[in-house]
Amino acid sequence: MDLVSVSKVKVDGVEIFYRHAGQPTAPVILLLHGFPSSSFMFRNLIPLLARSYRVIASDLPGYGFTEVPAERGYQYTFENLANTIGLFLDTLSIGRFAVYIFDYGAPVGLRLALDRPRAIWAVITQNGNAYVAGFGKEFWAPIERYWKSGATADRDALRPLLTLDITRSQYVNGSPHPSQIEPETYHLDQALMDRPGNKEIQLDLFYDYRTNVPLYPKFQAYFRSSGVPILAVWGENDTIFIPPGAEAFKQDARYYELHFLDAGHFAVETNEQKIATLISDFLDENIAGGSNQVDPMTGEV
Fold first, then answer.
1. Which of 33, 187, 259, 265 is catalytic?
2. Chain centre to alpha carbon of residue 8
3. Beta bridge pairs of residue 231
4. What are the φ/ψ torsions at residue 66 (nearest 5 degrees)?
5. What are residue 247's DSSP bridge partners?
6. Residue range 241-280, pLDDT digits in tens
7. Do the Cβ atoms of 174 and 238 come closer than 8 Å?
8. Tens digit of pLDDT for each residue in 19-52?
């Protein structure tokens, strides 16, 4: 099993923390985490994928061990997250990559795709949404109220979403094996979110998520125009991004596979080997020997 290294690099006035493994000359897979997690969620997946790929998993600004100095005055928007990760890739001289999008990682990764449409040679979406049909109504209803009003009262009404009970529920709800999910996952997420000022960052991003929705038609047009192969590996029991969101990719993707897992939002927990196999098989089919063959270095079909 390939060893996972951790590094930091200064980009855009931010110290980006990232995990990485695999041969430097291998095709790149970029793993993008979501709320309220970090690259730690990929700790077991990275070495499995690194047998064939160069795997990079960064912590987004506001998450994990990425450090944003207060004097930087960083504005926590999805546009800025995508810009920072784009500069991170440039700093590492990564021009072509497959992208694994989960939760917040979806709008970050797909904004990158709009900015550099030939850079991405495959998309793996694990409960990473790009369709209005994918919103779970109960979870998103109070957030949508805040979108509409921008009111302090509606912002404050979201603070319970930033507690340990809710963080834990995102990991264990919908899992057929909740006792097998390591408690350090949600405790680490919560400890990092409990840092001074971090919950305000999370509330800012809840509000800014509204800016992603008008981009959904552009994301979908990108799928159609680029023909990028899309693999959806989806926790079927997720109540945040629900199964219709996974099924919707089919209408715009030229090359598409969907696999539902008996899992919740954090489907990668306890399913690392299964997901790694699905990814490897899909990418192998789309890199060499398959009718959907894509050159990961040039993007040529």
1. 265
2. 19
3. 124, 257
4. -70, 135
5. none
6. 999 999 999 999 999 999 999 999 999 999 999 999 999 9
7. yes
8. 999 999 999 999 999 999 999 999 999 999 999 9
pTM of the model: 0.95
Asked if 229 and 123 touch (Cβ cutoff 8 Å), the reply is yes
CB 93 within 8 A of CB 116: no
> Which ranges in 20-124 belong to alpha helices (H)?
45-49, 78-91, 105-115
Considering just the CA atoms, what is the radius of gyration of the chain in Å? 18
CA nearest to 296, candidates 30, 3, 2: 30
Which position has the token pair 């969101």?
245
Residues 61 and 76 sit within 8 Å (Cβ to Cβ): yes
Where b means 16+ CB within 10 Å and e means fewer, 181-192 reads beeebbebbbeb
Task: Sheet containing 230-235: give its strands across.
Answer: 5-11, 14-21, 54-58, 28-32, 97-101, 120-125, 230-235, 256-261
Are the C-beta atoms of 139 and 239 separated by less than 8 Å?
yes
What the block records as the tokens of 191 is: 């400890």
- 84 contact partners, CB below 8 Å, separation of at least 6: 11, 12, 14, 16, 60, 61
Give, in order, the Cα–Cα distances in Å from 292 to each of 74, 189, 252, 300: 41, 38, 16, 11
The verdict on whether 33 is a catalytic residue reads no
